[in-house]
Amino acid sequence: MAKRTKLFEKIKNNPTETTFAQVEKLLIAEGFVLDRVSGSHHIFYRGPVTFVIPVHKKRVKSVYVKRLIELIEESEL
């Protein structure tokens, strides 16, 4: 099993305990690029898709993690 798949499954199984480092690693593996950081908001893009993640104390709220999971699952179809 690839590292990307393991990381995706780990995040998918426990979105409330996800760190920004894990989210960033998964986004980069999916082809996203960190465009800029504006305060606590990290802005990633891949083509026409922009994904903004606010980060506080190295954690990402589960609502953003769930959106990321949906985005990745949609792109796999």
Q: How would you characterize the overall build of this protein?
A:
With 77 residues, the protein is an alpha+beta fold. The protein is built from 3 helices and 3 strands, in the order ααβββα. It has helices at residues 3-13, 20-29, 62-76, and strands at 33-38, 41-46, 49-54. It has a 3-stranded antiparallel sheet, with no helix packed on it. A hairpin with a 2-residue loop joins strand 2 and strand 3. Helix 1 (3-13) crosses helix 2. 16% of the residues are buried. The mean pLDDT is 92.
Write the layout of secondary structure elements.
Layout: H1 3-13, H2 20-29, E1 33-38, E2 41-46, E3 49-54, H3 62-76
Antiparallel strand pairs: 1-2, 2-3
Helix pairs in contact: 1-2
Number of helices: 3
Major sheet details: 3 strands, antiparallel
Quaternary status: single chain
Structural class: alpha+beta
Give start-end ranges of low-pLDDT stretches. Answer: none
